[in-house]
Design goal:
The complex is a heterodimer of chains A (341) and B (324). Chain A is mostly helical and 341 residues long. Chain A has a domain at 97-302: MetI-like fold. Helices cover 78% and strands 0% of the residues of chain A. Chain A has helices at residues 2-32, 37-42, 48-57, 64-76, 90-125, 130-144, 147-161, 173-178, 188-195, 198-235, 238-245, 250-280, 282-287, 293-302, 306-334, 336-340. With 324 residues, chain B is of the alpha/beta class. In chain B, strands 6-7-8-3-9-10-12-11 form an 8-stranded mixed β-sheet, with helices on both faces. Chain B has a 4-stranded antiparallel β-sheet with strand order 2-1-4-5, covered by helices on one side. In chain B, strand 9 (223-228) and strand 10 (231-237) form a beta hairpin. The chains are: A mainly alpha (341), B alpha/beta (324). The structure holds adenosine-5'-triphosphate and magnesium ion. Residues 15, 17, 22, 24, 42, 44-50, 60, 212, 277 of chain B line the site of adenosine-5'-triphosphate (ATP).
């Protein structure tokens, strides 16, 4: 176990190094792209004096390496800089947008985990039967359907034709007016419950269904395929044949002994898809007018608001690195062979 | 006459694949009595493992099986899978050749043993105590520590003993051991063999011991079946097979044993290969490798016949009384 601890320490150091390199590279890239940050900061109608003041304020008169050092020191103090567009602290903006994204991404991935495992296992147990073919068809669809198209389709069906779910947004106007949610965590589902505001909670859920489902299609397909192929492989293993030959109950064999072995790769894939969705869900966010980090990122890039771009990059990288670390720990927890190495 | 515990009668097995139909077992018949260790010997690929898998009904889906396997006066081949699942572990259980892949690497061996006990003896309350007791029976002194180990923390021999413990968890009447020692070193082999004998003596479990090690057969088996290319060519009590050998193939196997080798001569080998299962030859399957083959062997299939009460051989030109 001691060796596992030192392994963890090494992993964390490595993670910090990765983070540092990503910050540095993004910093350099966003500064070599031709643009005029001071102009963006003061707006097109500003006077020459205002512009020059802005240059001093933003430290743009200093050489690049000094700007870099200042930025890194700022980071160490938890300061991600000031948005060029909004003049607000980047950290504050990100903390406003992040919970909205996390809310749909977490729900989407939980859905994907359960449905993926269910489908994958069932498919493997019914290998080459009709059920298997059907599930394989669905899972290929899941990974290959363009999310924006699927998003529009669900809107057309559930809002346009059936009229049972809202078109977009996180809350309906009525709720915002009559049952407003006091923000505590930024997760509306959690906050509305903490407020004891049940109508708002239901409204949140209704708004979550479509974007979460659309976001879940890719990981559902991914997890299903992973679990199925691992399960098919595991079911051919000697230890499964041995367990069968010696009278182990069928449920134990399939859902405990085989599934546990088939689960690790599925979790790995799911973790990466989760990390990707943190900033990569913007197509879905835009279509559902979802005020999340993806939307924020796209706007920051379009306007070359480099403090925001850097901020989002850092947050995205932290998620990637942290999730990878978490997955490694989880894998060690699930698989004794990893732990004992 | 004694009634056998299990009787395999005229078992025929084919595998269907893209390449065609492979004829794997041809009229395999043998009996195993209570408290008996029956050895099934033959070279690689002759069909020992598939015979075992036929008995426990875990053959791959592409197999066609005919004949009967009478156990407890019922034909196992007629059992639906649900019924067969109740036989496995409780009446018949099986250990495999490679102990290092028999146990699930993700779970502690104690947990696996307990799961086996719970599956095979659902009414049992003292599952853990019974598991520890089984481990003691199998010669583990520190049964608690072993109980909490993962398979890859144990040696191959220890893993095989755990596998045997699992196989015994339902107190079966028949234990099939498919080359239980092949993957182990010589010392551990001896240990496992002694253990199997102990189990028979203690619990009266019959054992089907599959092996290509004739030394092992001589040591523990009461009776032997010699298999060649999917057929049982000779079967009988161990001394009969060793000292009253009738089939030329059996003799070949015996002469290939290192301690039968005359000092100045190289080890004799049986020349040639096993016949092609997709297109088995007419007549005797051993004829091409046999020094005693005659015209008769060319076209006619030798049927097994009794040469004494328990000893049968399938050969047109069996050997006389040879002592080797
Ligand atoms: N699933 C399968 N499909 C087709 N042929 C098979 C299958 N399993 C086994 N066979 C064939 O059946 C024959 C007998 O195989 P089996 O494994 O019973 O041999 P064995 O006597 O146990 O050999 P060994 O000593 O190597 O374990 C072999 O020719 C093998 O190629
Ligand atoms: Mg074999």
């Amino acid at each position: 176990m001691a060796s596992f601890k030192s392994y963890l320490v090494r992993r964390i150091v490595l993670a910090l190094l990765v983070l540092y390199f990503v910050i540095t590279i993004t910093f350099i890239l966003s500064h070599v792209v031709p643009s005029d940050p001071a102009e963006l900061y003061v707006g097109p109608k500003a006077t020459k004096e205002q512009r020059e003041k802005a240059i001093i304020e933003l430290g743009l008169d200093k050489p690049l390496y000094v700007q870099y050092i200042n930025y890194i020191f700022g980071l160490l103090k938890g300061d991600l800089g000031t948005s060029l567009r909004a003049h607000t602290p980047v950290l504050h903006d990100i903390l406003v947008y992040l919970p909205a994204t996390l809310e749909i991404v977490v729900i989407a991935n939980i859905i994907a985990l359960f449905i993926g495992i269910l489908f994958g296992t069932f498919s493997a147990l019914k290998k080459d039967h009709l059920e298997d073919h059907l599930i394989r068809f669905i899972s290929v669809g899941g990974v290959s359907i363009p999310s924006f198209w699927f998003a529009l389709l669900t809107q057309l069906i559930f809002f346009g034709i059936l009229g049972i779910l809202p078109l977009d947004g996180r809350l309906s106007t009525e709720t915002q007016l009559f049952n407003p949610i006091k923000t505590i965590t930024g997760f509306y589902t959690v906050d509305s419950l903490l407020n004891g505001n049940f109508p708002a909670f239901l409204d949140c859920l209704r708004h979550l269904i479509l974007p979460a489902t659309v976001l879940a299609t890719y990981p559902i397909g991914l997890v299903t395929r992973m679990v199925r192929s691992m399960m098919v492989e595991v079911l051919n293993e000697n230890y499964i044949r041995f367990a069968k030959a010696n009278g182990f109950r069928e449920n134990l064999i399939y859902y405990k002994y085989a599934l546990r072995n088939a689960l690790t790769p599925a979790l790995m894939a799911l973790g990466l898809s989760f990390a990707y969705s943190i900033t990569g869900a913007f197509l879905v966010e835009v279509i559902f007018s979802w005020p999340g980090l993806g939307t924020y990122t796209v706007n920051a890039i379009l306007e070359n608001d480099y403090p925001s771009i850097l901020g989002v990059t850092i947050v995205g990288t932290i998620f990637y690195v942290a999730i990878n670390l978490l997955l490694d720990i989880l894998q060690a927890y699930i698989d004794p062979r990893v732990r004992l190495q | 006459m004694k009634k056998p515990l299990i009787e395999v009668k005229e078992l025929n097995l084919k595998f269907v694949s893209f390449e065609g139909i492979a004829h794997i077992l041809d009229n395999v018949s043998f009996k195993i009595y209570g408290r008996e260790i029956f050895g099934l010997v033959g070279e690689t690929g002759c069909g020992k493992s598939v015979t075992a898998l036929s008995i426990i009904r875990l053959l791959p889906k592409n197999s066609i099986i005919e004949g009967s396997i009478i156990f407890d006066e019922k034909n196992l081949l007629d059992f639906p899978e649900r019924e067969m699942a109740k036989i496995r572990g409780r009446q018949i259980s099986m250990i495999l050749q490679d102990p290092t892949s028999s146990l699930n690497p993700m779970f502690k061996v104690g947990e696996q043993l307990c799961d086996a006990i719970k599956s095979n003896q659902p009414n049992r309350k003292d599952v853990k105590d019974y598991a520890l007791e089984l481990l003691k029976v199998l010669g583990f002194r520190e049964s608690k520590r072993v109980f909490n180990s993962f398979p890859n923390e144990l040696s191959g021999g220890m893993q095989q003993r755990i596998a045997i413990a699992i196989a015994l968890s339902g107190e079966p009447k028949l234990l099939i051991a498919d080359e239980p020692t092949t993957a182990l070193d010589v010392l551990t082999q001896a240990q496992i063999v002694a253990l199997l004998k102990d189990i028979r003596d203690k619990y009266g479990t019959s054992i089907l011991l599959i092996t290509h090690n004739l030394g092992l057969v001589a040591e523990v088996c009461d009776r032997v079946g010699v298999m060649y290319s999917g057929q049982i060519v000779e079967t009988g009590p161990t001394e009969e097979i060793f000292y009253n050998t009738r089939h030329p193939y059996t003799l070949g196997l015996l002469q290939a044993l290192p301690y039968n080798k005359p000092k100045d001569k190289p080890l004799p080998v049986i020349l040639g290969n096993l016949p092609n299962p997709f297109n088995p030859p007419k007549g005797c399957r051993f004829k091409e490798r046999c020094s005693r083959a005659t015209k008769e062997c060319e076209n006619l299939k030798p049927k097994p016949y009794l040469i004494s009460q328990e000893h049968s051989v399938a050969c047109f030109n069996p050997l006389g009384d040879i002592i080797c």
